[in-house]
Amino acid sequence: MYQNTLEYAKQCDQQDPLKAFRDEFHFPKDASGKNIIYLCGNSLGLQPKKTASYLQEELNDWASLGVEGHTEAKHPWMPYHEFLTDSMAKIVGAKPSEVVIMNGLTANLHFMMVSFYNPTPQRHKIIIESDAFPSDKYAVQSQIKFHGYHPADSLILWQPRKGEELCRFEDLEAIMKEHGNEVALIMIGSTNYYTGQAFPLKKITQLGHEYGAKVGFDLAHGAGNILPNLHETGADFAVWCTYKYINSGPGSLGGCFVHERHAHNPDLNRFAGWWGHNKKTRFNMRHEFDVLPGAEGWQQSNPPILSMAAIRASLDLFEKAGMENLRKKSVLLTGYLEFLLGEMNDQRIGVITPRNPEERGAQLSIQVKNADKSLHQKLTEAGVISDWREPDVIRVAPAPLYNSFEDVYEFVNRLKHLLQ
Asked: Contact at 8 Å (CB) between 151 and 212?
């Protein structure tokens, strides 16, 4: 199917129905002014060229309108988060009422656990994958301690078998068979940051619910990458950031999903703020808290407009491209990368990410035997921006909105040269 030639890669790019989107982004450049091969969208997405104008629009309205911008701006600030909802809901496969953009990812995880982690002496355990992103571990451990329990007793790690890198679903089933009646929450990263393994979200949700546990997912490496279909999956909640595959800028806001079955339950524990209050009476300061239905009811503060403007610039591109189309291209790009790595016939090179496209997103985690970070440094000097994770893994993520088949070909060609 694939061919190991530059001509083939260029032909694929010419036939790519999404090729025009590449020109919508700024690329870092080398000393000669040529685009660097950027394969690090799993850490920070590139800046859309429209971002500056979207931000400038809000700066102009702030300058000319002052406080009146809340209602009189071209995109009024008071409901600004609503301009992001429909597009974001499509990306994560949710109903608009189930999605809200707010806060940072880990803050959102804490707010969700306030509502969906309610431990009792009989049911107080949380399951996470053993190599979850550290921030998830810290958040989960601190929630356990906050409720008066100890991680040594209340935290269960779903881990790969000895000598393996990937988690097996049947091992999670075995954990639930043994501990299911003690588990209050399963909280899994939808796509593991290190291995790139995409977990079966619906099966995990069904398993957790079968034993009476709540289920949530961290989509930091899933949103804008895989098709999580959150509503159909049935998870109780999910959280994600927008600065990786969704290209919203460093440290930008995160997103939350709360399934609609929880939409009209005002009795759920939550840390409330005034932006989660009934919009009609929000500015009548004398009212008791009247929670909004749906995910909006978890908001605390009025939206940070400049960050949201950058998100809107990227979401407009996702809206035009279509998540289904992006996923289709992503499978082809990652498949091509895997093919070219195999063509190297280098015994030092291995891919720890699952071979099945349904079990991975855009990222391939390349394990290089007997290598250290100096290899990654040499790649950087050769004009490739990727990502190194200790002890011996290069994470490479061709993002379908702006990466090309030629990018993938050139990366492997330069890696091969360095290894020689």
From this structure: no
How many whole angstroms from its chain centre is CA 227?
11
- Bridge partners (DSSP) of residue 238 are 217, 257
The model's pLDDT over 226-253, given as tens digits with 9 standing for 90+, comes to: 999 999 999 999 999 999 999 999 999 9
Q: What is the DSSP letter of 292?
A: P
Pick the CATH number of 6-48+322-419 from 3.40.50.720, 3.90.1150.10, 3.30.420.40, 3.40.50.620: 3.90.1150.10
**What's residue 399's pLDDT?**
98
CATH number of 79-319: 3.40.640.10
- Taking the domains of the chain in order of start, what are their residue ranges? 6-48+322-419, 79-319
Joined together, the tokens standing for residue 325 give 């189309």
Do the Cβ atoms of 91 and 314 come closer than 8 Å?
no
User: What is the DSSP secondary structure assignment for residue 288, as one 8-state letter?
Assistant: P
- 323-343 helix and 405-419 helix, angle to the nearest 10 degrees: 30
The SS3 assignment for 360 reads strand
What type of residue is 222?
G
Of 260, 318, 257, nearest to 41 by C-alpha is 318
Report residue 182 CA to chain centroid gap. Answer: 29
> pTM for the full model?
0.96
| Amino acid letter, 163 | G
- Other beta carbons within 10 Å of 41: 27
Three state DSSP letters for 398-410 = CCCCCCCHHHHHH
Could you tell me which residues come within 8 angstroms of residue 276 by beta carbon, excluding any fewer than 6 positions away? 270, 289, 291, 292, 296, 297, 298, 299, 300
